[in-house]
Every structure is written in C-alpha cells, then in structure tokens.
Specification:
The protein is α/β, with parallel strands linked by helices. Helix content is about 25%, strand content about 25%. It is built from nine helices and 17 strands. The strands form four sheets. Strands 3, 4, 5, 8, 9, 16 and 17 form a seven-stranded mixed β-sheet that branches. It is globular. The protein binds zinc ion (2 copies). One zinc ion binds next to loops. One zinc ion (ZN) binds next to loops.
Amino acid sequence: MQAMVLNAIGAALEWTELPDRHPGPGEIRVNVTACGVCRTDLHVVDGELPYPQLPIVPGHEIVGRIDALGAGVEGLSIGERVGIPWLGHTCGICPYCRAQHENLCDRPIFTGYTRDGGFATATIADARFAFPLGGAGSDVSLAPLLCAGLIGWRSLVIAGDAHKLGLYGFGAAAHILAQVAAWQGRSVFAFTRPGDSSTQKFARDLGAKWAGGSNELPPEQLDAAIIFAVVGDLVPLALKAVHKGGRVVCAGIHMSDIPGFPYKLLWEERQLVSVANLTRQDGLDFLRLAPQIGIVTKANRYKLTEANQALADLRAGVFEGAAVLVP
Ligand SMILES: [Zn+2]
Ligand SMILES: [Zn+2]
C-alpha cells in the first residue's frame, strides 16, 4: 500500500510505500477510494492537537470498500462500501462511554490522528466504527459527509430548534449544513470573511437567507449560531448576534484564543457551548437522513499525491466546499 505520511510536525506529507497490513480481530481492511481533507488534518500537521503520534497517515473522511475481514467481524462483508470517520475506537468502559457519551471517551482512538487514516490506498479500521454507506451517491461526494457533515450535524442538534441559524465560516461543514437546515425549514444566515463576496454568493445559492461578513450583524437577531471558523474573535461577535437565551456552538477542535468581552454579551441566558467529536449514533442518524435531503457536496478533487496542495489550498481558502483526495 501507499500513503501520504506525516513524519514531523509542520513537515510536508511524504509519499511512502508501506507493507500491506492485515486486519486484527474485530478490524476491517478497506481499499480507499476517496478521502476528504478536513480542517482537523491541518491542526494535526501543524501540531495544534496534543500528543501527536508520528509518523501518522492523516485523513478521517474515508470512503472505500472492504477487502479483508478480521476474526469475529459481523454484519459487514467483503466488497461492501463503508465510511470511516474521526472516531475510530472507544474504550466502552469509562464513565463517558457508559453514559452514552462515547464522543467524550477517556481513551479514544482517532482516525488520522492516533491511528493511521485515509490519505492512503488502504487503511485498517475497527469494524464497529465503520458506517455502511449503501449504493447511493459517488464515493467522492460522500467523503465530506464523514466529518464535515457529521460534526455539522451534531452541532446542529446541539444548537436546538433554532429557526434563525447563523453559520460562521462557510467551508466544508457549513456548505453541507446549510442544505440540511434549509431542508428542515430553518433560515440560514451565513458569515464569511469580510469582503468574500464569492463565498457569500455560494451560501445564498445553497439556500442561505442572508450572507455577509463576520464583522457584520445579521438583519435579524438569531436564535443560535454555530462557529466553524477557527477564529476565537468570532465568539463575542456571535454572542452579539443571538438574542436573549440564544446559543452559540463552537464546532471546531481547535480555535485561536477568545478575546475578553463584556459580560453583557453572555448575560440574559445566552449560552456558549462546544461540540467534541461524534457518537456512532450521530453518524447513523445523519447518514440515514442525507439521501432524503439530497445533499449536494461541492467536492474539489485532488490526486492522493497532491495531498500537500490540497492542505495548502484549504489553509488559503482557495476553493469552495470540500477537498477530496482520490488514490
Ligand atoms: Zn470510554
Ligand atoms: Zn474532521
């Protein structure tokens, strides 16, 4: 198998020939056919997440077909198309796992961060954490659903029954979530980098009622806002945009420091919460709904060998929607 490997924090990924791996008990081997590129991959490369495990193959929006089953795997078969998300394994016995909060597990394994991921021609996964994807939709279009879509979905659930919903940062996650929210009958207000009129148009084309710069207040007060951008300065701006009792959800795994702000922005029962990881139930719920919604992902295709270019383009905000690597 071949993979794009991160050998040192901040280094470019290196095309590497690796010995074929064999699935252990409870594991599957998957021939990767598409793998999305997520903002979290940049955090891994940049060393912004604790305890990096190196060398590592990044990538946690994996679509592929099973080509080997480990002992004891049930309910999956050779040739079946599956998706492999960020949450790669949980301990099952810590207080969080036992309380149905496996997203907060004390001893988790994360795909592409603490176990090799999908910037590769093949990968190994814990069978219990792989999602059967059925036959609908292309591999490339499904890949961004596995993190951008899933984390967006969990954020939306945590935002509650907000009708007027703000989305700060209109990248891979928001472009999927805007379609989900519009389908649910919500009004989406999209916030982009100030002056980014092409992304604002992209948001309106996907059903946003209003789109403007993150330095602007929306024309109506919001019920809730989700922050996908990695910019801590957005937190007080989003609190200012929601009405009394409104909720601001931080969806990213890493964010720059949040600046000090007057207490009155939080006062009147506004809430500030974060979303961490996903549960398997989030995945099942969202992937069941996705075909009904008819989500159209804007996937910008790169060859696997172009992973460094895809990461650079993501960092620079070169494309709309998501980047997907194809071996
Ligand atoms: Zn646990
Ligand atoms: Zn991700």
